[in-house]
Design brief:
By secondary structure, the protein is of the alpha/beta class. It has 15 helices and 11 strands. The strands form 2 sheets. A 7-stranded mixed sheet has the order 1-7-6-5-4-2-3, sandwiched between helices. Strands 8-9-11-10 form a 4-stranded antiparallel sheet. Helix 6 packs parallel to helix 13 and helix 7 crosses helix 12. The longest helix has 37 residues. Bound molecules: pyridoxal-5'-phosphate. Pyridoxal-5'-phosphate (PLP) binds next to helix 7.
Length: 479
């Protein structure tokens, strides 16, 4: 190859028609892969690719060759959350349309950090819809992030900057105050991580006991706030849970909003999956008060089934939000015309400059299915949780371990913890179903989280039958 050819080369295909034909075949196979998902095991052990094929890829390979490898070495070994009997942790299912949406976004390859182009307006539209869904004022701000973990970081960083105006520039050391945040003992670990990351440290998080429903005890919260004030600490934030990770409990958000207002504290809500119950008029009353949050973190990739990964933060006070993240670097001037315009930029509302076009897949899922149908999926999962609760009541070998609040059911086979863990491991290994485990009041439980639009009641029958059968057999083998 002559030097001049090399300089002028691109990464585009040499033969566009061949590339088109191969790409169409790949898409067909991907759609079949989703259509037939039920016929495959929920999970199987992946190939350790990094051990078997770790040569640095120096030379080009054809699309067909790359696909042959991926379709045999990677595609058959997903997490499992696309399968109707995946009930572990809290994972969204995704949609077939999500595949198409990702393709469109990759085609445009937009950078949504800022500037004036269509993707920015799509994200503004999605944020505007989110504000309407959750009853936030039009003047509120928001942005998409990779998930609720990041949305918690950004929301709590804004709250932290409100503690003392010097913090943004002079750092925490400039302030003598000792900021304290409050959350129930059922909080997700991402809240702890967020406080560690923003320099407050996890010791600033005071954990408040919960009621028998696993909701924060408001009286205990009030007592702790006043004791901390007496001790010279500086309460600054209450974090409410809209759907706890262990049991799906929803704190009394209205009461927390009242306390935050009376005590002049920032009110942040971790609504990773549970906030989406807001879509359902039937479930909405459970979340009353969510519209009063100063900041609300939630995920589109869990109970809205948008492909990973995309979450959202809404912030009531736009100016506090922008003040926490805005910069004035000359090379990012936003007052220009044409492509250099488009202020305000999303990069002034969060830590990231380059940002992908995640908004497209959110927009797509909302448009393709509509709020009513998406709400019906949320309601279906909550009804299925009640159904599973009923199945547990019918089996004397099983025991319910926490009240069913929304979509999470915690129960156990009446046997030691180790046997329950073994049941869950075997369910995974055999590809039958994928619940996870949790620790409730010091005991290991089998935990089923229903954020799966493909699940049918019959799948829960399969799960319960398998648990009872495995448990009975294991109890005989290891008395
Ligand atoms: C999943 C989850 C998170 C973390 O969200 P990511 O999207 O995984 O970052 C936080 N809180 C709760 C209650 C969750 O379920």
């Amino acid at each position: 190859m002559a030097t001049s050819d090399r300089v002028e080369a691109t990464l585009d295909p040499d033969d566009w028609e061949r590339y088109r034909a191969s790409s169409h075949r790949i898409l067909d196979q991907l759609i079949d892969f989703l259509k037939d998902v039920r016929s495959r095991p929920v999970w199987r052990a992946p190939i350790e690719i990094e051990r078997t094929d770790d040569d640095l890829p120096m030379a080009p390979r054809s699309l067909e060759d790359v696909w042959r490898w991926l379709s045999t070495q990677v595609l058959p070994y997903p997490t499992g959350n696309i399968h109707p009997r995946f009930f572990g942790w809290v994972h969204g299912t995704g949609t077939v349309g999500g595949v198409v949406a990702e393709m469109i976004a990759a085609t445009m390859n937009s950078n949504v950090g800022g500037r004036e182009h269509a993707a920015v307006h799509v994200e503004r539209q999605v944020v505007s819809w989110a504000k309407r869904i959750f009853g936030f004022p039009e003047t509120a701000s928001g942005l998409l992030l990779s998930g609720t973990s990041m949305a918690n970081v950004v929301g709590l960083a804004i709250a932290r900057n409100g503690v003392d105006a010097r913090i943004k520039h002079a750092g925490l050391a400039a302030s003598r105050l000792r900021p304290i945040a409050y959350v129930s003992s059922e909080a997700h670990v991402s809240v702890t991580k967020a406080l560690e990351l923003i320099g407050l440290g996890s010791d600033c998080l005071h954990r408040v006991p919960v009621t028998s429903e696993f909701e924060i005890d408001p009286n205990a919260l009030l007592q702790q706030i006043s004791a901390d004030r007496v001790a010279g600490l500086h309460p600054f934030c209450i974090i409410g849970n809209a759907g706890t990770v262990n049991t799906g409990a929803v704190d009394d958000l209205g009461r927390l909003a009242d306390i935050a207002a009376a005590e002049a504290l920032w009110f942040h809500i971790d609504g990773a999956f549970g906030a989406l119950a807001q879509l359902s008029p039937r479930l909405q009353p459970r979340l009353r008060g969510i519209e009063r949050a100063d900041s609300l973190a939630f995920d589109f990739h869990k109970w809205l089934h948008v492909p990973y990964s995309v979450g959202c933060l809404l912030v009531r006070d736009e100016s506090a939000h922008r003040a926490a993240f805005a910069t004035d670097a000359g090379y990012l001037a936003k007052d220009g015309r044409a492509l250099s315009g488009g202020a305000p930029w999303f990069s002034d509302y969060g830590p990231e400059l380059s940002r992908g076009f995640s908004a497209l897949k959110v927009w797509f899922v909302l448009q393709e299915h509509g709020i009513e149908k998406l709400a019906a999926m949320v309601e279906k999962n909550c009804d299925q949780a009640r159904y599973l609760e009923g199945l547990i009541a019918q089996h004397s070998e099983l025991e319910l371990c926490a009240p069913v609040s929304l979509n999470i059911v915690c129960f156990r086979f009446r046997a030691p913890d180790a046997l329950n863990r073994e049941i869950v491991d075997q369910l995974h290994e055999r590809g039958i179903a994928a619940p996870s485990t949790a620790t409730i009041r010091g005991r290991l439980v089998i935990r089923v989280a229903l954020t799966n639009h493909r699940t049918m009641r019959a799948d829960l029958d399969v799960l319960v039958d398998a648990i009872v059968e495995l448990g009975s057999r294991l109890r005989v083998e290891t008395p």
